[in-house]
Amino acid sequence: MPRPIEALIHPDALAHNLARARAQAPDARVWAVVKADAYGHGIQRVFDSLRSADGFALLDLAEAARLRALDWRGPILLLEGVFEPRDLELCSRLNLWHAVHHEQQIDWLSRHKTHQPHRVFLKMNSGMNRLGFAPTAFRSAWARLNALPQVDEISLMTHFSDADGPRGIAHQVAAFELATRDLPGERSLSNSAAVLRHMGPAAAGAGLASDWVRAGILTYGSAPDFPEHHSAHWGLQPAMTLRSRLIGLQALQPGDTVGYGSRYVASAPLRIGIVACGYADGYPRHAGSGTPVLVDGVRCATVGRVSMDMLAVDLTPVPAAQLGTEVTLWGNGPHGSRLPIDDVAQAAGTIGYELMCAVAPRVPVTVS
Length: 368
Known about the structure:
Layout (H helix, E strand, L loop, with lengths): L5 E4 L1 H14 L4 E5 L1 H5 L3 H8 L4 E4 L2 H9 L6 E3 L8 H8 L2 E4 L2 H9 L6 E7 L10 H12 L4 E8 L11 H11 L6 E2 L3 H7 L13 E4 L24 E13 L4 E2 L5 E2 L4 E6 L16 E4 L2 E6 L7 E4 L11 E7 L5 E2 L1 H7 L4 H7 L6 E3 L1
Parallel strand pairs: 1-19, 2-3, 2-9, 3-4, 4-5, 5-6, 6-7, 7-8
Antiparallel strand pairs: 1-10, 10-13, 10-17, 11-12, 13-16, 14-15, 14-17, 15-16, 17-18
């Protein structure tokens, strides 16, 4: 039989989470963000569940081509735009919308030969300081684009740095509104955190207006503002489960150690289980003792270092566990149990995004 680890993708959860974004932003159109191969879930696997979105947003031209091959005829937005002039040829052929965030991209467009003008999203750096034109340069960039016959409609976009935290978005919204005042074009401001925290009922009547919202991590069931709020607070469901089984059992005595480096030392008699999951499967090596897992739906904790193919679990809370007992690394467990990916990420000193994207190619994936 194959090694017992597997990842399950949950289509109903994906559709549910996308609907949550719509409920928060009922007057906006929704981008389903599928960059990084749909946050590790697989574009082909999530497509049917997300095709009710108004468009798909991503980074990679090859992934955009895969969406067209799946017979998606709606909008596709390249969030980082094009990376060299010849990318514009594919944008013309596949009818891709694309961000424009620096002058060179405008230069490339000005020399591009196309029969069909492009829809572009002009990006402002309103405080994130990654991509985009400074507010003082934004209008001149808009004017350059507006003068090009290669450009059809110009939408306006920015990205929030602190929508998930106490600083909030007011300073960036103010910069964006000042620089875009009286400019035509649809607006796209809100990422997952802004959708959940600053739109809809949660905004208490002070909701953020946006023509397009970008549903990223919320689509996959992770809370963008964890640990302040858990996924259940926002009504999100896990779109991925990583599960395996116990393949070994050990009885420890006081003073016995577990794993490489003998980092864990038993202080009392202890029964542990060995799980077929390690860092070669994408589980974080830096997840220390105490990282939560579910054994037959019961919350337990890891002990010792994660190795390439295995990790160890304290079985004290579930004495009936035996060889073959199911272990949930994150997601939906047996008997209606659930282990949010954010809980695992917090224990490992990272975020749910990284865990989703890091599941290794050797792990079999099933759409459940």
